[in-house]
Design goal:
The structure holds two protein chains of two kinds. In chain A, about 65% of the residues lie in helices and about 0% in strands. By secondary structure, chain A is mainly alpha-helical. Chain B has one domain (about 1-90): Helix Hairpins, CATH 1.10.287.3510. Chain B contains three helices and no strands. In chain B, helix 1 packs antiparallel against helix 2 and helix 2 runs antiparallel to helix 3. The chains are: A mainly alpha, B mainly alpha.
């Protein structure tokens, strides 16, 4: 079980590498989807299932869907592939940066692996993260209202940024 | 640093390097920014597990909220740039020429 969680951690790094060295935004979105699915699996194996499902629904099902069709708006019709020499060069360079950082920083403590999980934290029928997020409504009400206000303001910011009707010609895109 | 911490730390570093070296498209930079937010979310979620403190679970949820705001603003700027210049290539954003 520990090795499976380590494998998920390794796949998370490879997803991040795929996003960073993408030949085209299509492949960058694939790397981001892989990284978020693997991250959800990692959080599930740690026991915090609520934050994992929040990541899945809000991030993968909300934000990444919007990114995918923005990529279809903005990307080239004939993208490069992975085996272009520039892309491979970028990938090898990034891996080299991480490896050099690990070696220079000292390889002493990375063997310390361990996978722990959570319990109820005093409440008998829910786990730790359920009871933690429920504090948003009791002790964290001020931050909750601030976040809601920020989301409402963002809606108006986005509407102003993409308005094309009265501030210029109606554009085809 | 334990093995799991190294994992999301290096994913964050790789994404920030990808943001620094973005090449052609604006949306590649936005994807690297999203990947940085993802690794920060996972790091903040691992914190209540390690310390067994329930109220630290608020931090990743709050971070995800503001990350959604930032992603939507970035995509709105991408759409505005595509409507103005026809594509989102970064060499179109050349008002500050040196």
């Amino acid at each position: 079980m520990t090795y499976f969680v380590l494998f998920l951690g390794l796949c998370f790094v490879f997803g991040g590498l795929a996003v960073a060295s993408n030949p085209s935004p299509y492949y960058g979105v694939v790397g981001l989807v892989i990284a978020s699915v693997v991250g959800c699996g990692w959080l599930l194996s740690l026991g915090v299932s609520f934050v994992s499902l929040v990541l899945f629904m809000v991030y993968l099902g909300g934000m990444l869907v919007v990114f995918v069709y923005s990529v279809s708006l903005a990307a080239d019709p004939f993208p490069e592939a992975w085996m272009d020499w520039r892309v491979v060069g970028y990938g090898v360079g990034f891996v080299l940066v991480v490896v050099v950082g690990v070696v220079v920083g000292g390889f002493v403590e990375y063997w310390k692996l361990g996978v722990i999980t959570v319990d109820g934290g005093g409440m008998s029928s829910v786990r730790l993260d359920f009871s933690g997020v429920a504090m948003f409504y009791s002790r964290g009400a001020g931050m909750f209202l601030a976040a809601g206000w920020g989301l409402l303001l963002t809606l108006f910011v986005v509407l102003e940024l993409v308005r094309g009707l009265s501030r210029g010609a109606i554009r085809a895109v | 640093m334990s093995g799991m911490h190294l994992s999301f730390y290096s994913a964050f570093t790789l994404s920030s390097l990808g943001l620094a070296f973005h090449r052609t498209h604006l949306i590649s930079a936005l994807l690297c920014l999203e990947s940085m937010m993802l690794s920060m979310y996972i790091a903040l979620s691992a914190w209540p597990v390690e310390n067994q403190v329930a109220s630290l679970t608020l931090t990743p949820i709050l971070m995800l909220t503001f990350s959604a705001c930032e992603a939507s603003t970035g995509l709105a700027m991408l759409v505005a740039s595509t409507r103005t210049h026809g594509s989102d290539h970064l060499h179109n954003l050349n008002l500050l020429q040196c």
